Backbone:
């Protein structure tokens, strides 16, 4: 548990933080969000004592951090700084091993840990361990930054805009991967972002900061439902119902569906094919397109209803959000979107009807799987 008690921070006559009081719960991901310059990074830097408060105290598990040895404190905190900050002269492997080396782990254990961390962030050891930071893409560097922060297995992670420097698609992948990691590791995380969608998607709790003060500290659901004032309301933006969809994963709401094989369609009389719309699967149950019965009927030719397609374009994965599923549907003009595993095997589907229910009735009334 982290407690900020009457924390103030000033530089000369600039009051960056003003009497800040809050508590961060263990094993939760708390997001700090607010306009540029409102004091987000300053709050994080105070926790690992890169800077000192002008007033007040910070307690971690009841202990005043100002009374702790700063080196010992920092080794118990994973820190992902704004702009990644990998050491440029160290390889990926050496970067990840920084804290384990400070903790004096033996060589074999550090190597094993590095391998484990690279696996966690989906980077191949042989391909990446010996690269230097300038040989990585922005997204890869950010992932290595996250791996480095996790390497010493700290209970607490401070992450300052860890996914800011990448394109939206890579960012979405990093977020999904990160959520999967957090589900497993259950760290206490303080995460800064500028991006309200990212905050809503990832956070257990959100702190909205403005001019060095907390405006609202609540769950994403409550903030979306009841923004405390106009500042929060405007900050969240207009599409609150859509934003709620990014809190819900495909895995939670996946519905059943039966795929149909192309050879079964061509071998079956049209009127005996049950549904107007079916997903096509190959001999390994992998999604390979869809079948539209109406079009086959109109053209009096089964083949005219068969559409071959790449699963990447017509399917989502379990760890994606309902918001992702909804935008796929809009893009494709489909009433349902298929769900596949990493190999492309059809697992189920998400329907537009379900999404409508959630948007209009709230997720409590929509049938979870
Ligand atoms: N060392 C410093 N000396 C003087 N002013 C500083 C110093 N560090 C930060 N500030 C000021 O404190 C304010 C808060 O900075 P901080 O880095 O916490 O903002 P932030 O909320 O993280 O912003 P961003 O979203 O742009 O990263 C800013 O106005 C900044 O100019
Ligand atoms: Mg900052």
Residues:
């Amino acid at each position: 548990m982290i407690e900020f008690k009457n924390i103030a921070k000033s530089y000369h006559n600039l009051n960056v933080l003003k009497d800040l009081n809050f508590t961060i719960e263990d094993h939760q991901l708390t997001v700090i969000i607010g306009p540029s310059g409102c004091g987000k990074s300053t709050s994080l830097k105070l926790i690992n004592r890169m800077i000192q408060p002008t007033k007040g105290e910070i307690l971690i598990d009841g202990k005043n951090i100002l009374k702790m040895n700063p080196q010992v404190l920092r080794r118990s905190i994973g820190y992902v700084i704004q702009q990644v900050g990998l050491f440029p002269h160290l390889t990926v492997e050496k970067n990840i091993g920084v804290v384990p080396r400070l903790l004096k782990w033996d060589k074999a254990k550090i190597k094993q840990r590095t391998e484990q961390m690279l696996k966690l962030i989906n980077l191949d050891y042989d391909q990446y361990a010996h690269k230097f930071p300038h040989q990585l893409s922005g997204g890869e560097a950010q992932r290595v930054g996250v791996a480095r922060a996790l390497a010493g297995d700290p209970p607490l992670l401070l992450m300052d805009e860890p996914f800011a420097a990448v394109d939206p698609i890579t960012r979405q992948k990093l977020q999904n991967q990160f959520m999967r990691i957090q589900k497993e590791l259950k760290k206490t995380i303080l995460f800064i972002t500028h991006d309200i969608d990212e905050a809503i998607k990832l956070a257990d709790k959100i702190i909205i900061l403005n001019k060095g003060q907390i405006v609202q500290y609540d769950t994403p659901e409550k903030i979306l439902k009841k923004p405390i004032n106009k500042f929060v309301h405007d900050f969240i933006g207009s599409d609150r119902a859509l934003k709620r969809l990014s809190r819900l994963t495909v895995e939670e709401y996946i519905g059943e569906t039966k795929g149909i094989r192309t050879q079964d369609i061509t071998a079956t009389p049209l009127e005996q094919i049950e549904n107007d719309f079916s997903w096509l699967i190959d001999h390994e149950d992998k999604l390979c397109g869809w079948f539209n019965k109406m079009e086959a009927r109109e053209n009096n030719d089964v083949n005219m209803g068969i559409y071959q397609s790449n699963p990447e374009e017509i399917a989502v994965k379990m760890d994606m959000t309902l918001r992702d599923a909804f935008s796929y549907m809009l893009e494709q003009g489909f009433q349902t979107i298929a769900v596949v595993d990493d190999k492309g095997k059809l697992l189920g589907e998400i329907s537009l009807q379900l999404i409508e229910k959630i948007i209009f009735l709230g997720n409590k009334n929509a049938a979870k799987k």
Observations:
- The chain has two domains: 2-245, 251-361.
- The chain is about 40% helix and 25% strand.
